[in-house]
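Journal club side-thread
Mid-discussion, someone asked how the predicted structure for our own chain would compare to the paper's figures. Pasting it here so we can look after the session.
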Amino acid sequence: MAKKTSKTQAKASVKAPAEDKERYLEAVGRRKESVARVRLFTKKTGDKFPENKGLISINQKPYQEYFRDLFLQNTIEEPLRKLKSLDRFKGSIKVQGGGLTGQAEAIRLGISRALVLFDSNYRKKLKKFGYLTQDAREKERRKYGLKKARKAPQWAKR
């Protein structure tokens, strides 16, 4: 027995966004098997976030807790550091798949793309440092008769 729906029931109600919510820019960064969805929150011109290094959260954890390695932490901060705007943005990032290095590089690409959405003048500087170039290298597929992509079984003459 199929239900009948009227035209008024099928329409979804759209609510106007509240003005008190923070503005954010959203971008996606990818590297190997990692995908990072980056949201950068901005304040009105002139305002700055408090001088706190825990402004970037990854999967609802501070990024220092998620990435224990200092090198990976610096990888994430690089685009903001080059533009001297570490305290101007607050980031909320969801990342999944891959390893830690791939995730860090995916986040760096996502942050760079979001910064370009914020101000198109940032593009030239970020492009110069190579932060807007997606690293397209992927894992090579396994071929039949081999153990891995290129590793062959041990060869015996007799």
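Post-session note: The helical segments are 7-10, 63-66, 70-82, 100-118, 122-129.
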